[in-house]
Write a structure and sequence with these properties.
The structure is a homodimer. The first copy, chain A, is mostly helical. The first copy, chain A, has helices spanning 4-21, 28-35, 39-45, 49-74, 78-94, 100-106, 113-139, 149-170, 173-188. In chain A, helix 5 runs antiparallel to helix 9 (173-188). The interface between A and B is large, with 43 and 43 residues. The structure holds a DNA duplex.
Chain lengths: 189, 189
Amino acid sequence: MANADTSQRILDIAERLVQTRGFNGFSYADIAAALNVTKASLHYHFPAKADLGQQLIERYERNFLAALQRIDEESKDARAKLRRYAALYREVLDNNRMCLCGMLAAEFATLPKSMREDVRHFFDANERWLAAVLQEGKRDRSLRFSGPAAQVAQTLLGGLEGAMMIARSYGDVARFEATCDRLLDDLES
Amino acid sequence: MANADTSQRILDIAERLVQTRGFNGFSYADIAAALNVTKASLHYHFPAKADLGQQLIERYERNFLAALQRIDEESKDARAKLRRYAALYREVLDNNRMCLCGMLAAEFATLPKSMREDVRHFFDANERWLAAVLQEGKRDRSLRFSGPAAQVAQTLLGGLEGAMMIARSYGDVARFEATCDRLLDDLES
DNA sequence: GTCTATAGGTGGATAGAC
DNA sequence: GTCTATCCACCTATAGAC
């Protein structure tokens, strides 16, 4: 059976590489060098690059959803939840990374089908969570917006992903934070 | 001297490839196949891929700025200008493409230095134009917003780029338009 | 300007020893 | 599980004939 720890370490390195360079911007050789193993042994854990990519997204989504659940449990209202959601993105950017799925969305046309479906699944899950929080915010009066919550959720997701991508081009986290504040202030007014 | 027409046709193909697949997602072989020439003859026009990439961005920005100037000349007020600005993005998406520089922003870490600078230059030019239009909208009362125009401009640019990228993953232009409307309605209220 | 031919490197992936 | 060795396809790029 595959050593779970080794697989996880491979995924850790690969995740960083995809988030910084993109799925088409790294190779098995890069991971091998970082882990001091041969390319061949990577193929034992992930036979094809598409397998590696798919497991990357699925692990990323599991971890992300776990973080969202912690936010649900620990936040006092919907407004606080949104602020912590945005903070998740900022933490990624702090490490000079792009959201894994935001990066893959750019490369979408070149991805194997299984990865495409997983990317969309991640976005869907994010939007569902955001829409639920927005609805909750309307009830508890901590948030204010017009139109369907699902549409606000899409705008928020796109706004954060886009701001992240551009801010990374400038190596300027403050830039991301400013956009973040604008997007959220708007819902809190 | 290089045949200008051939160079332009090469750039046309390359532009489409970058906008759909990314700079690391295509090769000289792809262009050669589309144009029915050999890879070697492409190197006559663009010795290295970095040269091709740089000229791609610079031509893209020239064309984009020309479009912005037409908008300036033909629009009745700032509000109309913003709507036409957003329409530029939608037209790109209609062709199943991503904004050239939005795509390159994702691959930023893997780009040659000259291309990085050009990508940022494109964003800078966009933000300057947007900020000027926003200021104008404040004067002519066709737009309403709080805080610095430059910050609203950044939020708008990021919002459009992000919405574009995600909408393309779903092959759903309507999704982009909905986000667009939300972003702009907000400034017109 | 475009071609043939090729160099020199790297990509993902596999076979089989240990 | 990891290794050596290797395959083959593809990559960017160049030399030199036409």
